[in-house]
Amino acid sequence: xxxxxxxxxxxVMTAQSACAGAWLRDPDTAxxxxxxxxxxxxxxxxxxxxxxxxxxxxxxxxxxxxxxxTPGIAGHLFLFARVPVGPAxxxxxxxFEFGLGTHHRLDQWGMMVKSGISVGRSFTNRWGDGWxxxxxxxxxxxxNPDPAFKLDATLGLFSGRRIRxxxxxxxxxxxxxxxxxxxxxxxxxxxxNNTTWLIGLERKTAGHSSPGLKFATWRRF
Length: 221
What we know:
Number of helices: 1
Structural class: mainly beta
Largest sheet: 12 strands, antiparallel, barrel
């Protein structure tokens, strides 16, 4: 039973948006992402849905919300704050994030707490300007007594191209259980009105090995 609950726990954790990072939003600006990952399992299509948003409250404070739902399995609602660690104008960005929320596995609800450190940096190479971000976090979801350790990484290009590659990696480890990970090669397509479309694939090991199709819309305000 404990192993089954841990699998459900990790399924929803590795489905989170990879938008979070070391960069803060400028004051009075916002970002929103709506995404879905479609997976064909046991003769049915399963959808993992998420809504992620950030708002620049002050020069050194960004507030956010992370909502995730896999119908009939698990989901969460999470509110967080992000602040920089050290000078905000240096090239290598470091930020601390802390938040509270609620989650469910099937029909069982509980509180969740999360804290983490993010490191990000921009770079230039022969393919253009790019960036990478590494997120490490400790997450606790009651009534599960064991904490979850998360390590995520994102690598992308932003050098003026309308179509750009992005690679996302997410991992979760709960003591006493196998490491859960997912990898997503995706493509970003710039649209109008500060909108970006995302389409790609996801390979995930949480409870099953079925590949998924990932779709998202990013919007900056």
